[in-house]
Structures are given as structure tokens and as C-alpha cells.
Amino acid sequence: MPSAFQFQCHLVLIFLAASKGETRYLEVRDAGEDDPFLLLSEDLKRELSAGQIYRRSLRCIDMLSIEGQFTFTADQPQLHCATFFIGEPEELITIHYDFVNIDCRGGDFLKVFDGWILKGEKFPSSYDHPLTTSQRYVDFCESGNIQRSIRSSQNVAMIFFRIQLPGNGFTVTVKKNSNLFPCNVISQTPSGRFTMVIPHQHRNCSFSIIYPVMIKISDLILGHLNGLFLKKPSASCAGVGDFVELLGGAGLDPSKMFPLADLCHSFHGSAQMKIGCDNTVLRMVSSGKHINRVTFEYHQLDLQETEARKENSIEEFCFPSI
């Protein structure tokens, strides 16, 4: 059976699908499909392509993957609310406060967090984010009009808020900005293909997939300098400044996940791994001395794949948690 973490994450992703439009805009896929995602209707697509601003109300727990203007108005004391924002891998998210009417002195708060937090676990992890944990929070009650726009460092962000007086609330405008070199991504979908590039930057980048998946790495370039590949004599990644690792676990924070495999040699070909964990992460560690690149594709495991072993694959992991 799915773990509590997987259920919560999938619930969040269902919110994501439902939040792409109001009820009149949603079309459910064939009932026989297992995929919980809903599709945007052609009506909404036409409205958005025409340049109209999308507007709707927020729920206490909500999910957004689309640009627009969003308003929350408390109809009763709301003590533990959060809105999750997610974009495409190559997008950053900007949240702008248009209007805020909360009682900061009375205990209300409105905070933006640069990333996601779920059950105390953060994405990106503290090891992979350029800011400290405290710097990743922007508290409206402390910053006020000084900082009305906040831009995320990756394709996910969130708002925490507590509003105790009915009638109080806020309005935000959400916009997306392109990110030339995406680093730290949560995938919106259970399958896809992605190329991660870290050009001469000392940073760590994680790509998170909240599904059991088959992941296949087709191209890996490490230690690229002036057109030459640096030869690495060691057979182990220990002490190597540039490498890729595959992680699996039952939480959101990559630093708390199990290391399943590491790669520190460039190759062109195919290396695949079946990972049955609730969350799968491909993480690239870069020393900043080189241009590093990895291309991979992934798809969610179906029941037959979880039961059958594939030749030329690394041993499966985490299947007891499914």
C-alpha cells in the first residue's frame, strides 16, 4: 500500500490538476485510467492564450501551476493553511502581494517559503539551496511593503498563512519567469525527459519524481574543460568533486534519502534503474570547475514492472513500500 508521504504528495498533485481551472473548465480522463490528473479544457486554454488574466479564489490548502491573480478570504478562523506553487522545470515563480488585510499583531501571519515543506522535510534540502533556511522565509508581517514581490530559486514555492478574523485575507499575482539553467526541480508528471546542465557553478542540483519509476540515463558528461574530458583514474566516486547520484526514500528532503547508486565517469549509452520508492531523486554534485551535464528519462512503474525484473538493470529498491 502507498505510504502516508506518497498519499500526501499525490493529494497535492491532484490539487495541482484541479487548480488549473474551475469546475467548468475540467475534463476528466477515461475512468479506466489510473492517472489522477485532470486536463485543462480548450475553453480555458483559449482564454489564457488571448492574454486574459486568470482569477479565482484560494482554498485553505491549495495548489497552483498557472499564472494569474488569486484571492483568499477567510469565512472562519483559518489557522493552518498553505498554497503550493509549481511550474515547469525551466520556470521560476514570482509571487506579488496585490492586497493584504491581516492582523499581524493579533497572531495572523503570511509567509512565502522558497521551496516546499511537507511533514517537516524541505525541498530543496538545506545542502542544495543557496540560502539558509531562515533566509528562505519571507514574512509579510516583518517585511510589509518593503518586499512585495518574491521570486523562487526553483520551480516550486509555497505560502503559509493564518487568518483568524472572517473577512480578512489577501490577493497575490503569480507569474513565471524562464530559468536558463534549471537546478532543483519537482516533476509535475510521472514521466518525462530532462537534461540538467551545471556550467562552471559550485552547486548541487536535484530532480525529484514523487512516483516509483524506471529512470534511464542516456548521456552523462562530467569534468568537461576546454573541450577535453578529464580522466578520472579512481573506480569510486569517493573524493570526486563532480558526480551524479540516485536517491530513493519515503520523504521530500533529498538529504534524508537513501543513496542507491553514484556515477562519476562520463558515458554515452544507457544505464537504467528501477526504483520503487515513494520519491526518486537524481542529484548532480558540481565542483564549479567544469561544465557538467546529464540527460535522463523516466516513467512511472506499473504493476507488471514492479513484479518483473528487467535485464541489464541495477537491482530494484524500495518495493516493500509499494
Automatic annotation (TrEMBL):
Annotated localization: Secreted
GO biological process, one term: cellular response to tumor necrosis factor
Coiled coil: none
One GO molecular-function entry: corticotropin-releasing hormone binding
Domain Corticotropin-releasing factor binding protein N-terminal: 52-177
Family, as annotated: Belongs to the CRF-binding protein family.
Record's keyword terms, sorted: Disulfide bond, Glycoprotein, Secreted, Signal
Gene Ontology cellular component annotations, sorted alphabetically: extracellular space; nucleus; secretory granule; synapse
UniProt-listed InterPro entries: CRF-bd, CRF-BP_C, CRF-BP_N, Sperma_CUB_dom_sf
Ranges of residues in domain Corticotropin-releasing factor binding protein C-terminal: 185-306
Disulfide bonds: C60-C81, C104-C141, C183-C205, C237-C264, C277-C318
Function: Binds CRF and inactivates it. May prevent inappropriate pituitary-adrenal stimulation in pregnancy.
Predominant cellular place of this UniProt entry's protein: secreted
Signal sequence annotation: 1-21
Name the record gives this protein: Corticotropin-releasing factor-binding protein
